[in-house]
Design brief:
96 residues; mainly alpha; 1 helix
């Protein structure tokens, strides 16, 4: 069978091949959230490596912040009530 020898040179690709395939990652992990909420930002570089603990989704935290503030105010009120009650009891014992 005759063959032709040619020099290798850079140039346009004159033919292409297309194949169908199914690929899968060698390692799969389950990604879960510790809390539920509305996503306000999503890491959009699909296919990139990620590290444990890396933020992938940022959730809307306005409701959580509001609940935290309300809880802090409730603690502050409770402490103030306790101080007031203690002061009143001491005052009554002195002048009772």
């Amino acid at each position: 069978m005759p063959f032709k020898i040619v020099a290798v040179a850079a140039g346009p690709i004159s033919s292409t091949l297309q194949f169908s395939a199914t690929i899968s990652a060698p390692i799969q992990v389950k990604v879960t959230s510790e809390v539920s909420g509305i996503a306000v930002s999503l890491r959009d570089d699909e296919g990139q490596y990620v590290r444990r603990g890396q933020t992938l989704v940022r959730l809307d935290d306005r409701e959580g912040r509001l609940l935290l503030r309300e809880a802090q105010l409730a603690v502050d009120r409770s402490v103030a009530d306790s101080v007031r009650t203690t002061h009143q009891r001491r005052h009554c014992w002195r002048f009772g």
